[in-house]
Amino acid sequence: MVKIADIELPDRPLFLAPMEDVTDPSFRYICKQYGADVVYSEFISSDGLIREAAKSVAKLTLFDYERPVGIQLYGHLIEPMVQAARRAEEASPDLIDINFGCPVKKIANRGAGSGMMKDVPLLVEMTRQIVRAVRKPVTVKTRLGWDEEHKNIEEIAERLQDVGIAALTIHGRTRSQMYKGQADWTLIGRVKNNPRIRIPIIGNGDITSAQQAQTAFDRYGVDGIMIGRATYGRPWIFQECRHLMQTGQPMAQPSVAERVALAKLHLSKSLEFKGEKVGILEMRRHFSAYFKGLPHFKETRMKLVTQTSEQALIETLESIVERWGDFDMSEQVPEGITSRE
């Protein structure tokens, strides 16, 4: 068993990474159905939240079936981040997570996200004040450092632990790498195996298969694995990971009929949470991903990304089973996305 403060998780827990424009309530619902142990909101701007901006406030909407669920915040100034953490706490998450890892230019160049890694004293002081300001456990997601010459995650991990965070997630790249190259799990493992570290260490980066997740647990000893981009078009990856770790055998990829059922469920949840117009628009990015690999799919894909009524989409989805129901999807593994993870 792994514990984050008083939150009890199963051995080798699996986390859904917060991703902008992806981890909305409907996608979190789907990932929970497929075995994600902990999920997070899309990340929320502290400035937007304290201004009560509608888009930021909407991201605070949580549901009991998601628990344990965290709200992730980002910003570059201490006082707005403290105020935002207090505002987020009112939504009753199980965790409040601080984003010190996002590499996107418009965030990092303002000093937020992974930009905070250029000023470690400020990063630590911000975390200290947030921990003191809220009652919920505070966790942090970060990277190895700003660039190749400043891989200071070991120092940062100790200092963050000392100011009271309950767990640390480390993405195995520097900010300068963005999502290029390979994630370096050796440094993540070094932090985990540091005798001074007592809090759970969660590894993140390049986990695109159940075998990679199992290897990360076995080789680096991390307490948990966070999966981000690989969940897009493949939310069942959590189930795949758990199946392999429990049985030693790979799980079969979902059939066409199973993917259609999943897409219909996801659509219904998107409409429930966002209404028909927005719910359909935001599902378009998911439809193609669920059926990646089907031959001669262009015409059907165009229908899925242009139709504007629930009934028309349901009919199109059902036609996929009729036409491709016997197609073998066992080798069709989505490639994921590039997202602000």
How would you sum up this structure, described in words?
- The protein is α/β, with parallel strands linked by helices and 341 residues long.
- It is built from 14 helices and 11 strands.
- It has helices at 25-33, 46-50, 54-58, 78-89, 105-108, 120-133, 153-162, 185-192, 210-220, 237-247, 256-274, 276-290, 298-304, 310-324; strands at residues 2-4, 7-9, 14-16, 39-40, 44-45, 69-74, 95-100, 138-143, 167-171, 201-204, 224-227.
- Strands 3, 4, 5, 6, 7, 8, 9, 10 and 11 form a 9-stranded parallel sheet that branches. It has a two-stranded antiparallel ribbon with strand order 1-2.
- Helix 8 links the parallel strand 9 (167-171) and strand 10.
Query: In whole angstroms, how far apart are the ends?
Result: 26 Å
Measured as a percent range, the helix fraction is 40-55%
Number of strands: 11
Classify the beta-strand content into a percent band. Answer: 5-15%
Overall mean pLDDT score? 92
Oligomerization status of the protein chains? single chain
- Please state the overall shape, judged from the principal axes of the Cα atoms: globular
Largest sheet at a glance?
Answer: 9 strands, parallel
Give me the strand/helix succession: EEEHEEHHEHEHHEHEHEHEHHHHH
